[in-house]
Amino acid sequence: xxxxxxxxLAKQGDAQAIASLMNRQLQPKGIKVKTNLTxxxxxxxxxxxxxxxxxxxxxxxxxxxxxxxAEVIKRVVIHGRVSGNNTSVWRESFEIKSDLTxxxxxxEFINSLPVTSHKSKNKISIIDRLTSFLRxxxxxxxxxxxxxxLSIFLTLTANLFINNKSRPTLxxxxxxxxxxxxxxxxxxxxGAEGWELTSARRAISGEGSSSRGLYEVIFKRPATKxxxxxxxxxxxxxxxxxxxxxxxxxAKIGIGSINRAQQANYLEKMTFANTIEELGLSLKLETENxxxxxxxxxxxxxxxxxxxxxxxxxxxxxxxxxxxNGETTxxxxxxxxxxxSKISPKSPQLNVKQPVCPAGLSxxx
Length: 365
Description:
Elements: H1 6-11, H2 15-26, E1 32-38, E2 41-48, H3 54-68, E3 75-82, E4 90-95, H4 102-111, H5 126-156, E5 160-161, E6 169-179, H6 183-192, E7 196-205, E8 212-222, H7 225-269, H8 276-279, E9 290-296, E10 300-307, E11 315-324, E12 327-337, E13 349-351, E14 354-356, E15 361-364
Parallel strand pairs: 2-3
Antiparallel strand pairs: 1-2, 3-4, 5-6, 6-8, 7-8, 9-10, 10-11, 11-12, 12-15, 13-14
Helix pairs in contact: 5-7
């Protein structure tokens, strides 16, 4: 029996096949894409030396995915990035009609994952780990969006408005996301604080069954120069803190990905991998903010993410072999330094079949 060709695999929703077809046409333009299909959501990360052209890529990917008619693809999310930078410069998404039910999508995705033990709260649990991973990725995306909004409003607060040749009025601005159920009460409260409505638009928070309707509303009110300076400094501090939190979140995700890959590798090959390439991951061992290092022996695997910037915390992950009821299985742990540190963390230890973080570090989910 002949093997399906690349186009046939792409029509079946094979993310790697779709990426290969896209890269054939995009690489001459200096653009490379990476893809992932999760529960009907097809993620495309497009990278180039300069900022990828958003309108061209969205049109190209939209036409290509629509023509494939892959029933497993419900929604497409596209991120544009500069090569070597993990932060998206722009993001676009659109829905794809499909005849498959949500239950079929979830079953197919879960069946594609490796089966592991569920005997301990620290042992790998596919559903729990997947839910946690999707949650932190969503949180990272929201943090990045907040940083962009803060930058916009820092610019707006510096503008002067002239009315009838009188002394210019200085304004301060803020944005609120208000649920439908609390809209009236929130508007009265904000109005009582002296804020004036500038604009509002309808929005949806969350996805699928967890989505909810809300309004994104922009307000303004008169402010003194001193107040504007105070708010600007506060926003700068908040923006920097949000950026640090986002950067640390990506490091935690990286440590967790390597831990899970080591557990899957041991389940398949009865050994731990010594390199990122053996694990089949696309993570870089050194980024702008962190340096990663993997060490293994016959019964354990360790990975560290050591910060390169003073304000960032460092991380360590570990996978241990344990014997329970005559069966060898794995347990994993992730730890972060209690304070920012540029020193590579010490390794966790196994204590009565449970991994324990070293002194000065705390376990993270």
